[in-house]
Amino acid sequence: MIQTISINSYSLKLSLILLLTGSLLSVIPVKAQEYPGCFIRERSGDVVNLTQSVCNLFPTSAPLSANPTTPGVFQIPIKRREAGIPVIDVNFNGQNTFEMLLDTGASGVVITPRMATALAVQPYGNLPISTASDQLINQQVGRVNSIDVGGLEMRDVEVSISPVLEIGLLGQGFFGNYDITIKQDVIEFRART
């Protein structure tokens, strides 16, 4: 009888482990991913949209398409690639054009000190940034009047200034409301509906 209890105890433990493991592998919906942009969820569960008021991430409406045959689609020529990452021309404030990396892993727009000087960006604070190599570095933060990529324009954009980059990064802070397709020679920005 003791041996039977031992086997049943073992079976019970094994069943419990399998049950818990199976429940961990099941799909658990994540409410934070249900909403685009920048927001907070109050204790009551209500979602407060902060996209424009606090985060200033995305334009409120999709601009007209730069591609007359497909509304809502912008095609941006790729100039070259650095380590496989597309380099594109980006216009700032309607007058200065710089080459930048289109970095789908970057959360914001990062410019170089040379770009900041040319654009007369006035830093108003510092922001700790976690890099791809898990380093934490402080970067100055400022604003530019506008950023335009092939007719896709965003106004009053927060940028960080990296003291270590030689070329700027165009990240999610600019194109977060668009689906992106990176092709051989062009990048397509497709407005989400």
TrEMBL record:
Coiled-coil ranges per UniProt: none
Which Gene3D superfamilies does the annotation name?
A: Acid Proteases
Q: Which domain of life is it from?
A: Bacteria
Q: What is any Pfam family matched here?
A: gag-asp_proteas
The protein's matches in InterPro entries, at most eight in alphabetical order, are given as: Peptidase_aspartic_dom_sf (IPR021109), Retropepsin-like_bacterial (IPR034122)
Entry protein name: Peptidase A2 domain-containing protein
Q: Which organism is it from?
A: Planktothrix serta PCC 8927
